[in-house]
Amino acid sequence: MLIVIALGGNALLERGQRPDAAIQRRHVRRAARALAPLAAEHRLVICHGNGPQVGVLALESQSDASLSRPYPLDVLTAQTQGMIGYWLVQELTAAGVDRPVAALVTQTVVDDRDPAFHTPTKFIGPDYSREEAAALAARYRWSVAADGPRWRRVVPSPEPGRVVELDTVRTLIDRDTIVVCGGGGGAPVAADASGRLSGVDAVVDKDLTAAYLALALGAHRLLVLTDVPGVIRGYGTPQAEPIRAIDVDELTRLRFPAGSMGPKVEACQRFARASGHPAAIGALADAADVLAGRAGTTITRAPRRPGGRPAHSSPASTGPNQAAHLLEDPLWTR
Ligand code: ADP
Ligand code: MG
Asked: Confidence band (pLDDT; 50, 70, 90) for 311?
């Protein structure tokens, strides 16, 4: 199978942990060990997050007195693609993956009139107390929001359009290469009137970019691996209860927070709905079990036509890209 994996930035740097390189590399090593068994059997595209990491770089840039202005987030996202991609390439190989692994710096086209520019939702950087967050917001003119009980900086997160380097990704997959791409959602770029692309100050959600990649590449599965065991109904309440399997339509009726579980659920819905293949959300450590449906939350689309073909074809099938029609949709073709 071709599997697109969305790998959580928060699973590579736990909340409250020092962002030291050695600590992050240890997490990447653990991630690589969890992914190596999948790499032995399947073709993989890995799309990592960068919320904690891009936040570290943004803080450094903001406090660098030699700069006349901090580096924009598209540039910092490209930097995190290099850093995390480099770690993943090394650690996947060290974990016994015996195929080439390549990390690509990729760009994601966004609409610079996306309403998301007026309502920041994407959490970046460390968490703070409410008072600390308010002080930083005043000092650096940040937007801040509650991420669970703690507060974090939030930045605009426009919808991903297309991934500029899609054909290169395809070429590498066809050459049996594991591809790390779309990191941090991809460096966001917008086209001017003449079609020229240039960077914008935002961070795209990598879960949505992963859904785009999964559909555009005709993947058989989308796996969203993070720091919780799956989707929880009534999260944070005494009635909290894990969801093992759910139909896309039923999932639509539930509500999830923007900037964390919201985009994961949305990504899985888009993929399952358009492709008919299952998507799953679960803990990084359980990667193989999440793929097998033994752990995490599996999201499926019920068969559409009574007596028709099942909702998802056999895992081994490599038919035409069922999602091709979706790429005509304005959401993906901006
Ligand atoms: P990642 O870096 O993997 O993208 P996020 O922080 O964006 O991680 O999303 C995962 C977080 O979503 C979890 O750590 C959890 O705190 C939060 N979350 C919010 N609602 C839910 C829910 N209903 N079920 C599970 N986790 C949830
Ligand atoms: Mg996230």
From this structure: very low
What gap in Å lies between CA 279 and CA 14, rounded to an integer? Answer: 24
50 has catalytic annotation: no
Residue 294, C-beta contacts closer than 8 angstroms, at least 6 positions apart: none
Rounded Cα–Cα distance for residues 192 and 195 (Å): 5
pLDDT at 328: 55
The β-bridge partners of 226 are 283
Cβ of 49 less than 6 Å from ligand 1: yes
Residue-wise pLDDT for 234-270, tens only, equals 998 999 999 999 999 999 999 999 889 999 999 999 9
> φ, ψ for residue 182 (rounded to 5)?
65, 20
Nearest CA to ligand 1 atom 10: 260
Predicted structure pTM score: 0.91
Which ligand has the minimum distance to the alpha carbon of residue 148? Answer: 1
DSSP characters over 65-125:
TT-SSPPPHHHHHHHHHHHHHHHHHHHHHHTT--S-EEE---EEE--TT-GGGGS--EEEE
